[in-house]
Write a structure and sequence with these properties.
By secondary structure, the protein is α+β, with helices and mostly antiparallel strands. The chain has one helix at 74-93, and strands spanning 8-15, 19-26, 40-48, 52-58, 64-71.
Length: 99
């Protein structure tokens, strides 16, 4: 992606008894479907003691049919929920705030 295509990229680390970093990025709305160039992504990275696993199921292409993220432990459940809420806010706001 070129910087012109990327309207925002925000990163935040959530901590409890583990550290989970989440990043939300995207182009912002482009007025239509994928052909109009709009995109959004959310990524998660273990920064310490996060018991997190992901699986991707594919059908007859490179596209994912199903993505599952599984965490184990109370702290992991809390930081994942907080991270998802934060990422959803960033995507809805188009990255307006990084807090």
């Amino acid at each position: 992606m070129t910087s012109a295509e990327e309207a925002f990229r925000n990163t935040k680390t959530f901590e409890s008894f583990c550290l989970l970093q989440v990043q939300a990025a995207g182009s912002g709305p482009k007025g239509g479907n994928a052909g109009n160039g709009g995109w959004a992504e959310v990524s998660f990275e273990d920064h310490g003691s996060t018991s997190i696993n992901a699986t991707v199921e594919r059908e007859h292409s490179d596209r994912a049919k199903k993505i599952t993220i599984r965490v184990e432990g109370d702290a992991e459940m809390t930081v994942l929920a907080d991270a998802l809420e934060w990422a959803a806010r960033r995507l809805r706001e188009g990255g307006a705030a990084n807090g």
